[in-house]
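Please fill in the sequence for the structure shown.

STRUCTURE ENCODING:
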């Protein structure tokens, strides 16, 4: 991921209502609803041009208010667990717009989704197909399914969030498709309605999506040659965001992204194209706000020790991810710090040798672009409390 941003880190800060924020108990996630609204507007503006359908990837952020907002905006939901399906339904997503993916769906999760009559199961293996068929048969139902196909396209992103290579655990290999179609002809309680892909996340090179389109076209041709008409094509999510410059680029390049699919994908008459964007919808609206507990002089370094840790935002520790950090309390001359949390792990570091305005105990730091895979990945390691949450329009 982007570990070497070139921008001057201390300058160019985001907009925070500092007087209000100062009074709140840290650490907390702060969601700027204006940014979220503008992002959603930008997505809707583009997809309406093409009649595309967005199923928001709930895994990126399942905060109830955010889900409610996205459901009210008309998006569907992409879920990867029974609890995500429940969260989506509780937030107002109609079951008819919910898809359920995941390599290890349990019987309980499949039964829940069958009971709710969700739109589609994105199926990842032959054994799973057989189980969905038998559970649907017990209920006297027919489940709509899409085959998740692993297209072996390199997403050029961090290896932990690359999902579309042969070595990854996700989806059917292309070589298994003939056998799967044969199997499907015997399974009467599942109905094949489409194919599904998702090759990775935080994809910054948009040409990657062109390569995906080429593969999808080949696969669509393969189905057509066998006289199979697929109503739905789902190409997943993956569009990256600008972690280095959230103020300069608060909204991803949706125009170019959707244009690529429009120009490169050869859909047949009536075929609908679905997306499952997560990060690019919610990342830039969220910041993790943390208070400086101590500034400690080390032998060779200065540490800004803050009250948020890897339990609140695990991305730097897990993926070596860069999150821009701003001292929103200080305009003093710049100095370099290692910004670290209080957790008993050496990986509990948000940034090393990072330029901040001179930092003192009590200052507030904003870790930017934390709206996706931030709050939802928080844990209680060290018996810590989960981070609190505030919204820009409700403080
Ligand atoms: N659809 C499927 C099947 C997925 O597996 C994912 C993400 C998405 C859609 C949404 O992708 P997005 O638009 O958000 O890139 N925790 C990691 C990210 C893991 C992404 C997993 N799959 C991180 O913090 O970077």
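FILLED IN BY: designer on duty
SEQUENCE:
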């Amino acid at each position: 991921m982007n570990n070497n941003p070139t921008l001057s880190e201390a300058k160019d800060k985001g907009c925070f209502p500092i007087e209000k924020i100062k009074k709140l108990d840290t650490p907390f996630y702060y969601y700027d609803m204006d940014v979220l609204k503008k992002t959603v507007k930008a997505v809707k503006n583009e997809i309406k041009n093409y009649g595309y359908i967005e199923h928001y990837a709930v895994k990126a952020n399942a905060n109830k208010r955010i889900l409610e907002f996205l459901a009210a905006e008309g998006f569907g939901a992409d879920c990867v667990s029974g609890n995500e399906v429940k969260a989506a339904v509780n937030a107002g997503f109609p079951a008819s717009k919910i898809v359920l993916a995941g390599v290890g769906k349990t019987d309980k999760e499949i039964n829940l989704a069958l009971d709710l009559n969700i739109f589609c199961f994105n199926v990842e293996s032959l054994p799973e197909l057989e189980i969905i068929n038998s559970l649907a048969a017990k209920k006297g139902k027919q489940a709509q399914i899409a085959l998740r196909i692993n297209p072996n396209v390199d997403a050029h992103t961090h290896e932990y969030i690359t999902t579309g290579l042969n070595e990854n655990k996700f989806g059917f290999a292309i070589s298994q498709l003939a056998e799967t179609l044969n199997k499907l002809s015997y399974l009467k309680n599942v109905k094949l309605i489409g194919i599904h892909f998702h090759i990775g996340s935080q994809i910054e090179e948009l040409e990657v999506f062109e390569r995906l389109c080429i593969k999808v076209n080949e696969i669509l041709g393969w189905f057509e040659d066998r006289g199979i008409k697929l109503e739905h094509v789902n190409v997943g999510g993956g569009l990256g965001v600008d972690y280095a410059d959230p103020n300069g680029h608060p909204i991803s390049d949706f125009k170019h992204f959707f244009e690529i699919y429009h120009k490169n994908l050869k859909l047949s008459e009536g075929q609908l194209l679905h997306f499952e964007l997560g990060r690019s919808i919610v990342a830039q609206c969220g910041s993790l706000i943390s208070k400086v507990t101590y500034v400690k002089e080390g032998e060779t370094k200065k540490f800004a020790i803050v009250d948020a840790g890897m339990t609140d935002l695990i991305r730097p520790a897990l993926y070596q991810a860069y999150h821009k950090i701003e001292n929103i309390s200080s305009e003093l001359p710049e100095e370099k710090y290692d910004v670290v949390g209080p957790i008993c792990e050496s990986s509990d570091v948000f940034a090393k040798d990072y330029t901040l305005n001179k930092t003192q105990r009590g200052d507030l730091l904003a870790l930017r672009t934390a709206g996706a895979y931030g709050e939802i990945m928080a844990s209680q390691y060290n018996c810590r409390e989960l981070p609190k949450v505030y919204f820009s329009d409700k403080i």
